[in-house]
Amino acid sequence: SPKWTFDFFKDHYGDVQVPTGVVFSNKTNQPLSEYIDYLQSHERGDPETEGPPIYMEGWYFRAHNDELCRDFQVPDCLRDDWFERFYPENKNPKGTGILMGPKGAFTKLHTDGQCTHTWLAQFVGRKHWVLVDYDQLSGLFGSKYECNGKYEGFEHPGLEDWLKSNRVEYWTCNLQPGEVVVLPGNWFHQVTSLDASISLTHNFFNGTNARQVLWEMMRTRFGRESEKAG
């Protein structure tokens, strides 16, 4: 939607509390207008915003601002979402989120939770993606959780050099406004904002990855129950 600009969100949703912070660190809830002020100040290079870029890492708006769904249309090829088709309303995670960040904001190499597929549409600015099939890293780590956002042995932004030195096959792309990337479940990805950016993302599953997603859900639930019992 061309109306999705920083000014639009500041004017219409400025009071909404959104989670912000340095990637994979503790998050702070703050008004969206306050975060956009920070983002624009960071873009100007104001001294008070020095330091690692703060990212709005997922405003999952559908619970309270579902009217925003009228501003975009999901392509037919991506509509087969079993959360939407089969889950009761109160169990559907409604995993549709808006992401914002200044130039330089990034997410470390990670996989999305529960092996879900993901699509991400770029609205404002550009993002550089590094994508790695899990099988390419399985021989280097005991489990995906050893490197899932933790960077055991390598650090952003040196990921591509690390992958090359370890002969890991990977893919890159620069996502432009109006473009969409579709990520299969269990694929690692690192994303860096090349400009101040606004993105829309959605996690889903269907017949192509249902077995992996349901297994992950069971493993996570039983793990929590075991911790309670202990």
Task: Give the helices and strands, then pairings.
Elements: H1 6-13, E1 17-21, E2 28-31, H2 32-44, E3 55-60, H3 82-86, E4 96-101, E5 106-110, E6 117-124, E7 127-133, H4 134-137, H5 159-165, E8 171-175, E9 180-183, E10 187-193, E11 197-204, H6 210-229
Antiparallel strand pairs: 1-2, 1-3, 3-4, 4-11, 5-10, 6-9, 6-11, 7-8, 7-10
Word description of this protein:
It is a single chain. By secondary structure, the chain is an alpha+beta fold. It has six helices and eleven strands. A seven-stranded antiparallel sheet has the order 2-1-3-4-11-6-9, covered by helices on one side. A four-stranded antiparallel sheet has the order 5-10-7-8. Strand 1 and strand 2 form a beta hairpin. The relative contact order is 0.19. The model has no long low-confidence stretch (mean pLDDT 90).
What does this entry show, briefly?
It contains 6 helices and 11 strands. The chain is of the alpha+beta class and 230 residues long.
Helix content: 10-25%
How many runs of DSSP E, i.e. beta strands? 11
Number of helical regions:
6
Poorly predicted runs are: none
Rg measurement, Å: 18 Å
Query: H/E element string?
Result: HEEHEHEEEEHHEEEEH
What does the overall shape look like? Answer: globular
Give me the side-by-side strand order of the main sheet.
2-1-3-4-11-6-9
Main β-sheet, in a few words?
Answer: 7 strands, antiparallel
